[in-house]
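hi! just following up on the protien thing from before. the input was this:
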Amino acid sequence: MRSPIKVILSVFVLAGLFSINGTTDTKDIAFLFKTNGKVEIQQNGSKLWHGAKRGFRLNSGDKIRTGDNSLAALLFTDDKSLMKIRSRSDVIVKGERKQASIAKSIFMQVGEVFISVKKQRSVFRLETPTGVAAVKGTEFYGQMDEDGKFTILGISGIVELINKYGSVLVKAGEKGISTGDKAPQSQKAAPGDGKTWGQEGDNNEPQYDELEIPFKDKDGNIRTLQLRTKVKGKK
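and the predicted 3d structure came back as:
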């Protein structure tokens, strides 16, 4: 049996729906709501990569990689935290649901991301080989270079940048750097450090984007949840 539910919901309602469906604590932690160019997924436990489109559900341990001139944008299902992954990036999305919140841990081997956390319900960490950014309700850019340099650019709020030698708080308008061979440092961002790709919108895009996601209700019936999300940003 399949019937549509014609409702417009905020994304955080998904957490309750997925828990009703009997999914485990590490399933359906996020979903892709926008892809541009080449976006591939390697699901946890698999060795195969395959193309992914909007609406793809992400479980803990799934890997995402983007090609040249590409972008992947995902929303977490507990608090609408947003992450945009820029071209030529490799990340692993990890999370564990605890009641109505998801403890999030993103590992970025190389690449660049934009993260927006406005209604933080649990831990959100961006990990790299040379440092960890602990999010404290904020917007920021994170970039991991192939030479091991991890850079944070604060847009709002505070990010704690940590490595084995120490930690530093990175505030809005500041840049934090961790190279892995000394304590991280922060400094006022220079004019040339400014980034806007994660915050900009496309004037040709609609203000809202709609996405239908199938799910099972408590009786085992297949239904369709129609989500309406505000369009914000491009690569």
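The first helix runs from residue 14 to 20.
The CA atoms of residues 121 and 179 lie 30 Å apart.
cheers
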